Amino acid sequence: MKKNIEQTSEEERVVFYNDSAEPTVPSQVTAKTKLEALNLNWRERDLPEKIRTKHVHRLHPYLGKYIPQLVEIFLRKYFKPGQTVLDPFSGSGTTLVQANELDIHSVGYDISAFNIILARAKTKTYDLKKVRGEILDILERVHQATQNEAQQLSLWTDGKKGRRKEKVNEYLHAWYAPAALHELITYRDLISEYDDQDLLKVILSRAARSARLTTHFDLDFPKKPQIEPYWCYKHSRTCTPTQDAYQFIKRYSLDTIKRIEEFAQQRTNATVQIFHDDSRKAQIPMIDGVMTSPPYVGLIDYHDQHRYAYELLGLEDRSGFEIGPASGGSSQKAKRKYQEGIAEVFTNALKSMTKGGRLIVVAGDRHDLYGEIATMCDVNVEAVLQRHVNRRTGRRSGEFFESVFIWRKK
C-alpha cells in the first residue's frame, strides 16, 4: 500500500493509492471500511465487462460514464437507506440506478435531453408483462411494414439516386442506407402509440447508432459516412457498411427485455427524480450528499456523441450549456471557465445539503483543477483516492488515472 500526505495552506490532504491488497468487493464495503483499505484498481479478471455493464447499465452505449461498482462502494460507505443522494451530472443514470438498488433516494440533473430519456428508461418501475408486450408488438409491426422483398427493392429504386423520399433531414439521409432509414423511421413513427415511450426511444436510438454508415471500429465519433467497403481493424477483414437497421432493432429489443427484467429483481422502492435542467441554477430539493462524475474539460461533446438520437427524435439541443465540452478545448481560459462552471454546480448543491454531508466526485484531474474547485466551493477536503483504470477496450483503449475527491460540507 502506498500512502502519500500532501500539505496545503489550510489543511492536511491525504492521498491514498492502494494496489497491494486484493481488489475491493463492493458488496463488502460498510460505513466502517477505511479509505486506505480500498483497492479500486480492478483488472478485467477482477471485474469483467459483463459485471460492469449489468442489467440496465448497458441499455445504451455511453462514453464517459463511471462503472456502477465504484458508485456502489461510496454509496455504501457514506449513505444510509432512506437518505437522498444527488447527481448533478446524472448522464446515463449510473448513480440513480445504484442508489435505487441500495434503497437510497436519488435526484439527477442533466442538460442533455437524450440523457434524460435514457436515465428515465433505466429507472422506471415497469409492468413487466405490459412492457414486454409493447416491445414485441412494435417490433412485429415494423417487421410487417418493412421486411418483404418487394418493399426492399423499392427502397433502392424510388427517389433521387436511389434514395427513398423519407420526410427527414439531410443528416439522416447522409448517414443511413435507404432500407435502414426506412426501418428506423417506421419504428419512430409508431412510438407515440405506446405507453413506455422512453424505453422504445432508447431501443430505437441504440439501433440507429449501430446502423449508421460507418466503420465497425469507429462507432463513437465517426467523422463522415462510410459508403464503400473498407478494411476493418475490428474484424481483420474487408467489411461493408450496414444497409439495414431491423437486425439491430430486433437484437436490442430482446436484450432490453432481459435487462429490464433483471433490474426488476434488484430494484427497491426508493424514489428517483430526474430533471432536464442546468444544475448550476436549478432549485435542488433537500439532499444528504452528492455522488457524481463531472464532464472532463475538453474531452467529450456530450450532445454530439448521440447526434443520431437528436436528429431522429427531434430532441432539443442544449449543447451550449455543456461544461468543458471538447469543442471548447483545454486552453487556460477554457480550464478556468470549466472550474467556475463546476464550482457553481457544487455551490448550488451545497445550499440544499445537510450539514456534514459529503460530495464524492470522480474525475480524471490531469490538469490539477479540482484543488482550486474545492477552495471555490469552501468545502473541507477529507481525502483523495487515486484509481488506476486499465481495463478499457477498443481503439480508445489505454491506461489512465482518475481521482475520487471526498469533500465535506462545513
Main β sheet profile = 9 strands, mixed
CATH architecture name of the largest domain: 3-Layer(aba) Sandwich
The secondary-structure class comes to alpha/beta
CATH top level of the largest domain?
Alpha Beta
- Overall outline: globular
Strand order of the largest sheet: 1-2-10-11-9-8-3-4-7
Query: What would the average pLDDT be, to the nearest integer?
Result: 90
Poorly predicted sequence stretches spanning 5 or more consecutive residues = 1-12, 156-164
Q: What is the assigned CATH homologous superfamily of the largest domain?
A: Vaccinia Virus protein VP39
What is the beta-strand fraction?
15-25%
Explain what the structure shows:
- The protein has 410 residues and is of the alpha/beta class.
- It has 2 domains: 232 residues, Rossmann fold (3-Layer(aba) Sandwich), CATH 3.40.50.150; 135 residues, no CATH class.
- Helix content is 37%, strand content 17%.
- It is built from 13 helices and 11 strands.
- The strands form 2 sheets. It has a 9-stranded mixed β-sheet with strand order 1-2-10-11-9-8-3-4-7. Strands 5-6 form a two-stranded antiparallel sheet.
- α5 packs antiparallel against α10, α8 runs antiparallel to α9 and α9 packs across α11.
- The N terminus is likely disordered.
